[in-house]
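#structure-requests
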Amino acid sequence: MVVNQATSQKIQARQSPQAPARDSFWCDAAAHLCEGRMLWLGGHACGTPEQALAWIGWRAGHVADQLDDHLAQPVRAWIQDHPEHQRAIGQLARGITYALVLCDGSVQFVLAATPGAFDPDGESAP
């Protein structure tokens, strides 16, 4: 069987996933409830790792506002944790998803940024 170069490239493209584009990031927030339900809390498309992390921080502030003080303190500490932010930005720049998981008893909040991912509905937060 003879396979030309164009056909070979098409086969390779189907077999090996493309590296994510690093000039776009999809961020979203969700609450996972103990009974197995998930509530989507919003999402936003960003153009840089810094913008993606800023969105996660913005949503983390909203989550902290909903929690009791003793549970909100670690969230507020994360918001001020600049070394962790630099680590997260580097991770995103390398094409690796960054997730912040916050627990409030039976609810787990997950705030994440995914490189190269796009929102299918085109929704965004202000």
